[in-house]
Amino acid sequence: MSGVVVVGGTSGIGREFARVRARRGDDVVITGRDPHRTGTAAKEIGARGLALDLARPKEISDALSDVGAVDHLVIAGVSRDENRVAAYDIDAAVHLVTLKLVGYTAVVHALRSRLHDDSAVVLFGGQAKERPYPGATTVATVNAGVTGLMRTLAVELAPVRVNAIHPGVVGDSPYWRAKPEEILAGLRARTPTGRLATVADVVDGVDFLLCNGSVNAVELSVDGGWLLG
Fold first, then answer.
1. Averaged pLDDT for residues 135-146
2. Exposed e or buried b for every residue in 50-81, given b needs 16+ CB within 10 A?
3. Distance between CA atoms of 129 and 56, rounded to whole angstroms?
């Protein structure tokens, strides 16, 4: 049985990963911003829930104070953001940068003493860093920042392994499932596999990065080759 912490585990990919690991019999802790939603999700998947807001990094250590030994740490928390230089929302930008770069680092700082030599960490980025789209000004920036964060953590935390996963369009995720079919069809047509990544594909990728003891400081793209389209 492994001790697993999933930050951002109340919905989407984070929740599905936590559910899979809890079903295996692991001791899983999930976090989310809203205490009630987090508690409900934790009960449904057989985990323990803790309220934690990545955008309030000074409160993270206290929120994680009673977490025990951590074998696998997944930081998947994200906030949807649309920002453009032409109409730049500074508050929204600061919120996302704080959440994904400062908040992610604060989680690792808070749990550092509970990691051990065989622990592994996976950070969530995204393919907007490679193929920005209108409105991705901040998203592309922070996802590129995850690369630098992964590398420095792999050096600082050694021998703890630190990797990053960069999903492309995840067709059956709540966000993309709500998009019009013509948009999804166009994305599939530009993907060499002819299919969009699924939540299960990303969960499998996260598990690989956590469990393969020789994979370290690796960025794994899960996009069906979408960047080649």
1. 95
2. bebbbbebeebeebbeebeebbbbbbbbbbeb
3. 24
The whole-angstrom separation of Cα 13 and Cα 104 is 17
Distance of alpha carbon 90 from alpha carbon 97, whole angstroms: 10
Q: Which of 112, 99, 122, 117 is nearest to 203 (CA)?
A: 122
With contact defined as beta carbons under 8 Å apart, do 1 and 29 qualify? no
pTM of the full structure = 0.95
Secondary structure class of 40 (helix, strand, coil): helix
CB count, 10 Å around CB of 49? 24
Contact status, residue 190 vs residue 229, Cβ threshold 8 Å: yes
What is the per-residue pLDDT across 75-114, written as a single tens digit (0 to 9) for each? 999 888 899 999 999 999 999 999 999 999 999 999 999 9
Strand 3-7: give its sheet, edge to edge.
Answer: 48-51, 27-32, 3-7, 72-75, 120-124, 161-167, 219-222
- The CB-side HSE value for 220 (13 A sphere, CA atoms) comes to 22
Residue 198 and residue 167: Cα distance in Å, rounded?
9
DSSP 49: E
Give the containing element (helix H, strand E) for 175.
helix 174-177
Could you give the 3-state DSSP secondary structure of residue 226?
helix
